[in-house]
Amino acid sequence: MGRKSEARKKIIDTARELFWKNGYGATGVAQILSHAGIGSGSFYWFFKSKEDLLVAVLEQYLELLDSMIAAPAFKKSTDPIERIFLILEGYRQILEEYDFQLGCPIGNIALELGDKYENVREMTIKNFENWRNMIKKCLHDASNSFPPNTDFDAMTVFILTTMEGAMMQARAHKDISYFDDSIVQLRVYFNSLLTKKEFDS
Amino acid sequence: MGRKSEARKKIIDTARELFWKNGYGATGVAQILSHAGIGSGSFYWFFKSKEDLLVAVLEQYLELLDSMIAAPAFKKSTDPIERIFLILEGYRQILEEYDFQLGCPIGNIALELGDKYENVREMTIKNFENWRNMIKKCLHDASNSFPPNTDFDAMTVFILTTMEGAMMQARAHKDISYFDDSIVQLRVYFNSLLTKKEFDS
DNA sequence: CATTTACTTTATTGATCGTTCAAGAAAGGA
DNA sequence: TCCTTTCTTGAACGATCAATAAAGTAAATG
């Protein structure tokens, strides 16, 4: 590899791809290295363990959220509520584009590893927080469309809940309608709050 | 083991427990057998592979749903909508009782294995269908509390979506409030439909 | 009693797991 | 030029993986 450590990045990128598609446990270090064209000696120069690599992958996801998820959605609309549903549509596209082989990479790790490694769990929490902050900003921008007593934190949790549950079912059934049905019901939930505001004001 | 195959059941029970707590991939056949006190020769007499065992475990979950999930909830109330939320409370108890180490066993498998084994995917689908049928019956019993155009199938999917997403987040954070927040929002969703009915009638 | 069927026991297979190690190559600074 | 730092190479390690083979036991069947 090149003289200023493209190798480390190459390993992370390859691992991210394979962890996402096949899971952490099912992806061997040897498999990552053969895909990346790098020897095991180099790997353990950059990372002290496979677990350490997973943490690096999860750190990268923190940085990727804006460019890969938020920016594409925000470009399509300026309306804060519409932006939320455009973000969800981005995940819908992932399901369809990769024929339901890919879900939410964070959710996958969260369920697979649980609390087996504390530093991994910390990173999944940070990723969830990062995601929810993205949503919370949108809700804040639309805060005067909602009743004054609205619990925006709980709402944000509920949106992530819907996304994760919707992706899980669509993936299991290999049928996008399970995703779409869930999102439609989330719209129902939203609309009930928005119209309630109209009554009050 | 005894003369009429308690061994097979012992293996399934042990595997169910370990798969649930540690996942399918992270649970070794040898680990299952040492917990069950059974040799590998016996194992491969009853099952042709580890994958085959997983299918048997998922078959058992189909039978266990009534006695472990539905019955305890239905005993506490006869109101169909309250029963739905009592079922969700049952999962809440699992989270707390086992200190967030256990989630939804079907959801775990669905995300871990994806579509790696077709017969496993078929069984997870059957389990999801089984679960949704339990909910759908409740909704049917309360059908005249909802507006006439209500999409009960989509509603049912949405309830499972909420359960899965809520458990995932609570488990990742080791904090029950993520579960509770999601359920409260599901109540908001329900109430908006129920009150809408009142307006219409 | 003889034979078959049902199941157990344990040793062992080859593959793959994550990880280590000793040796060296390439570049920079002195 | 020589030394140091940075990174690469590839073989090897012991452990564990799912799965098999072969021999043996016990009950049922005829």
Précis, in short:
The structure is a homodimer. Chain A has helices spanning about 5-20, 30-35, 40-45, 50-75, 80-95, 105-115, 120-140, 150-175, 175-200. The first copy, chain A, has about 200 residues and is mainly α.
What does this structure look like?
The structure is a homodimer of 201-residue chains. By secondary structure, chain A is mainly α. Chain A has 2 domains: 1-47, Arc Repressor Mutant, subunit A; 50-200, Orthogonal Bundle (Tetracycline Repressor, domain 2), CATH 1.10.357. Chain A is built from 9 helices and no strands. The mean pLDDT of chain A is 94. Chains A and B meet through helix 6, helix 7, helix 8 and helix 9 of A and helix 6, helix 7, helix 8 and helix 9 of B. Chain A binds a DNA duplex (30 and 30 nucleotides) through helix 3.
Task: Name its key features.
mainly alpha, 9 helices, Arc Repressor Mutant, subunit A, homodimer, DNA-binding, 2 domains, Tetracycline Repressor, domain 2
CATH architectural designation of the largest domain in chain A: Orthogonal Bundle
Which homologous superfamily in CATH is the superfamily of the largest domain in chain A? Tetracycline Repressor, domain 2
In the CATH hierarchy, the third-tier topology of the largest domain in chain A is known as Tetracycline Repressor, domain 2
Number of domains of chain A: 2
Overall average pLDDT of chain A? 94
For this structure, what is the CATH class of the largest domain in chain A?
Mainly Alpha
| Oligomerization status of the protein chains | homodimer
Largest interface: A-B, 48 and 48 residues
Calculate the terminal CA-CA distance of chain A, rounded to whole Å: 64 Å
Number of helices of chain A: 9
Show unreliable segments of chain A.
none
Outline of chain A: elongated
Sheet/helix structural class of chain A: mainly alpha
Series of H and E elements of chain A: HHHHHHHHH
> What is the makeup of the main sheet of chain A?
none
- Beta-strand percent range of chain A: under 5%
Overall strand count of chain A: 0
Radius of gyration of chain A, in angstroms, nearest whole number: 19 Å
Report the helical percentage of chain A.
Answer: over 70%
